[in-house]
Amino acid sequence: MLTQRFNLKEYLNDQRAFVDAALLAHIERLCPSAHLKPAVIHSVTAGGKRVRPILCLAGCAAVGGDPADALAAACALEMIHTYSLIHDDLPALDNDSLRRGQPTCHVRFGEATAILAGDALLNMAFELLSEACAGAGVDAVPRWHTVLGVVSRAAGCRGMIEGQARDLAFEGVKIDQEALEAMHRLKTGALIQASAHAGAVLGHGSDRQVAHLIRYADRIGLSFQVVDDVLNVKGDPAVTGKSVGSDQARRKNTYPALLGLARAEAYADQLIEQGLQALSIFDNKADPLRAIARYIIDRDH
Amino acid sequence: MLTQRFNLKEYLNDQRAFVDAALLAHIERLCPSAHLKPAVIHSVTAGGKRVRPILCLAGCAAVGGDPADALAAACALEMIHTYSLIHDDLPALDNDSLRRGQPTCHVRFGEATAILAGDALLNMAFELLSEACAGAGVDAVPRWHTVLGVVSRAAGCRGMIEGQARDLAFEGVKIDQEALEAMHRLKTGALIQASAHAGAVLGHGSDRQVAHLIRYADRIGLSFQVVDDVLNVKGDPAVTGKSVGSDQARRKNTYPALLGLARAEAYADQLIEQGLQALSIFDNKADPLRAIARYIIDRDH
Lengths: 301, 301
Known about the structure:
By secondary structure, chain A is mostly helical. Chain A has 15 helices and 2 strands. The longest helix of chain A is centred in the last third of the chain and has 28 residues, at 207-234.
């Protein structure tokens, strides 16, 4: 049950501030480069919602852990997410010149710097996780090893990078819902699941709790994508920041194209219900996760 | 003293075969992707000399360790090196269409796939190191944490990536020897040092041994670069695979341009002598490292 008094907006602002302070401090420390830091900072501060780090911290809190114990993992996850956006936006890939209303990294700093800034962020994520492993107390080391494994796997060829490769390969090719869903589970789902997974492990979650949080993250991750596709068809461009029907114009494989608008919307609802169901084993410490799930359905951008 | 009977060519062939078998097996396992594996394999098998993995294994052996204990680190280092070449060759960076006589990754597979294949290799290196950490026995864990820290730092914004950024920034700009040397120490030196460092740590080397091997790697790494520049001026293009004077034509900052050819050659010799000097504390288990140092000076490509 969602506690009525829980203020999601305030919660998200607090968590974002918590993440951002640490994230920027890590970048200052790990990336002193005059050539690369401006590009890295530009992309990291370009208005991201911090979905992955917040899921990591909220997953940690849901199992009764202290979110501070998951903060380094949360920052590493956002670094990996940001690098993937920088490389995805490049001319050879999606060729996007705007993201969240800001010029993309290669538009602002040139393609060469954008490629290196992306590389830098991916590498930095592992520098951070490496420090966390080395600095962990004896009993925490196995948890950090699990996190390192979960995050590196989710970000790689059996996760996000494979999803990006499939997304490229599918451009202009008609695929079925199963293939679309498998692509999204890799391209965005894997890192979203890894976020909740890492947080739960660092919060000392039981195997059962971890499994439920992974299921939750899987469902809300997919739902988020379905809602994105729906908003592209019927959203207000002033609010979504994208032109209506741009997916259709680019012949992208989307849920509305495959299922029709009404069934796509119903599917998004169903996924959120499954996500909330997965949280039923948790007490009110999972209220932020419940509120995030409901927000995905209710959002307009 | 260099043992006369030591056969460097045979040694290098054996080590390459040892590394390659493991490297390809790791790629098969960690990168099952139909979209990315061909590009990854293409670049990994495009005739690399395996300098970094061999330094890692030889560093391990020099301190009395079993090179098999350093094999995962050796593979990770070659993955990182290969990713850096793929991204460096991209049109936005060096725009090279040939490397070691083979079409570069983006020429063969397209730019998008090349960017993702580079990302995949960097990520894979950390998947491999993550597995090594998780699979290490209790007493080996601190050594693997050191390796993870050393490698991730050397590859990042305080190492290789910063070197690439400076190399780009210096294009067509006249710099002094100090700036050139700092750039090379970052761009190639950091990962070469990390290779010997990682091997020595995994071979249970003492702090003093590790420090001497880092010094050795620093000197031969720099010398390698000086010899490269010299060969570009006076090498046989049929052997070097590059046109004579191509660096000059591209207004690259080189040692011959800064010091003149004769002083550049003398400097390369001096660096090798310093590298050999750093090995004086080791017995004949460091003979491969001695032979590699001499080979750098004597090579013609």
